[in-house]
């Protein structure tokens, strides 16, 4: 005999479903508040939540109330203004509250504040990166057997309780009860029919011993039917899981930043904020994305995250050194047939004139055939220089996979970022 006892504790955060329903209902208001928060705070402060306010009038719902019907006669003690037959004017405002629900000042000294609540870090980042993704993410061939997914592989009679199939177990129990009870019920019907036939005989011909025997047999058969268990260990069925190899969807993002002498501290701060936003975006949505940080002036070096953002090293500007280094890293560590490759570059556009053509050649012949997406952000209030012009030629040859935008002030980082990584309806890699 097997018994099912549900000892699962009540789940925590019981209002989680209602909270998600509320966030979805007022998504427009919340998203507007999140965008204002992104423009207001620094990108390094993006990981905390945000307090969001919704006007009370937008969350008000109609309420049906039972009114007083017919004619009413009342006596108001201390009345000095009205006499019998006068009509009393309905109070202004909602529900006769003298301005309640308007959210503003009232001469009644009453009002209603905006509804305020706090978004968690996960909810805040979900709204920040809503509708964004890595463009042209492709499924690559199998890299190794390490990347697997557990999938269901039928049912078995043995397994762990967490994988029990309730529906199939109950079906097996029902079939077993039918099979075990069928011959007993058939014998019971025959015994009851024999007892009825014996009782209908003439009293002289009736056999009392036979009647007692049939009654005992009927009681025995009924007990056998009741003894058939509702569910037995034999009935239990368990879901079986097996490891199924999965195609690799790994990606690597190359963050390339110009740290030459022409890059002022203001330019570097904007570039750092752009890459920090990019890092949070990748961390939020993609678990299998690697980051490679490349700094360059006259020479390029692969550095760690700390040095990438905070090192004070500077020099001239040769952008091709960074592109060459990126290409070498791809050849040695990230085969294009196994990785999705992305590059994000931030610069002020200043470069040696002769080097800009070299950059175009490197991109067209070496990098772009291997990359899924390349983004170039130019941080400058001035006119575009030779590097931008050469990159326009690259964008003309790869319109779907090469994007370039200009940023002047820090407030433009988030809109530009959303434009660069907005979700596309159709993706071609």
Automatic annotation (TrEMBL):
Region ranges (Disordered): 85-111
SUPFAM superfamilies attached to this UniProt entry: vWA-like (SSF53300)
Database matches in Pfam families: DUF444 (PF04285)
UniProt cross-references to InterPro entries, sorted A to Z: UPF0229, vWFA_dom_sf
Record's compositionally biased regions (Gly residues): 93-106
Signal peptide boundaries: none
NCBIfam families given in the database record: PRK05325.1-2 (NF003707), PRK05325.1-3 (NF003708)
Family designation: Belongs to the UPF0229 family.
HAMAP family tied to this protein: UPF0229
PANTHER family, per the entry: UPF0229 PROTEIN YEAH
Name of the protein in question: UPF0229 protein M8006_07785
Originating organism: Halomonas llamarensis
């Amino acid at each position: 005999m097997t018994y099912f006892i549900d000892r699962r504790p009540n789940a925590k955060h019981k209002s989680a479903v209602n909270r998600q329903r509320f966030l979805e209902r007022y998504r427009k208001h919340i998203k507007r508040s999140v965008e204002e928060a992104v423009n207001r705070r620094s990108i390094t402060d993006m990981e905390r939540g945000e307090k969001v306010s919704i006007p009370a009038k937008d969350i008000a719902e109609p309420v049906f109330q039972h009114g007083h019907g017919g004619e009413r006669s009342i006596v108001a003690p201390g009345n000095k203004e009205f006499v019998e037959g006068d009509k009393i004017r309905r109070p202004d405002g909602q529900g006769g509250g003298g301005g309640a629900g308007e959210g503003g000042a009232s001469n009644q000294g009453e009002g209603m504040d905006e509804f305020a609540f706090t978004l968690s870090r996960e909810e805040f980042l979900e709204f920040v990166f809503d509708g964004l993704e890595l463009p042209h993410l492709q499924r690559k061939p199998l890299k190794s057997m390490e990347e697997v997914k557990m999938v269901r592989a039928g049912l078995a009679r043995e397994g762990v309780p967490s994988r029990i199939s309730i529906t199939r177990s109950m079906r097996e129990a029902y079939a077993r009860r039918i099979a075990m009870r069928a011959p007993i019920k058939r014998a019971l019907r025959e015994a009851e029919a024999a007892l009825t036939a014996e009782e209908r005989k003439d009293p002289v011909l009736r056999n009392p011993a036979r009647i007692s025997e049939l009654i005992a047999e009927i009681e025995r058969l009924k007990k056998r039917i009741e003894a058939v268990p509702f569910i037995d260990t034999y009935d239990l069925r368990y879901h079986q899981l097996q490891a199924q190899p999965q195609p690799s969807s790994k990606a690597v993002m190359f963050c390339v930043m110009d740290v030459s002498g022409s890059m002022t501290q203001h330019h570097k701060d904007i570039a750092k904020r752009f890459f920090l936003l990019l890092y949070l975006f990748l961390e939020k949505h993609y678990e299998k994305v690697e980051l490679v940080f490349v700094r360059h002036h006259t020479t390029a070096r692969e550095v760690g995250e700390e040095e990438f953002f905070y090192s004070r090293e500077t020099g001239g500007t040769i952008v091709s050194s960074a592109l060459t280094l990126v290409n070498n890293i791809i050849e040695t560590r990230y085969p294009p047939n196994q990785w999705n490759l992305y590059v994000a570059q931030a610069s002020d556009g200043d470069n040696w004139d002769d080097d800009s053509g070299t950059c175009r050649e490197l991109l067209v012949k070496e990098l772009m055939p291997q990359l899924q997406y390349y983004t170039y952000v130019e941080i400058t209030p001035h006119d575009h220089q030779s590097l931008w012009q050469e990159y326009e030629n690259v964008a003309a040859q790869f319109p779907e996979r090469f994007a370039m935008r200009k940023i002047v002030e820090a407030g433009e980082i988030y809109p530009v970022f959303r434009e660069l990584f907005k979700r596309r309806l159709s993706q071609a890699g």
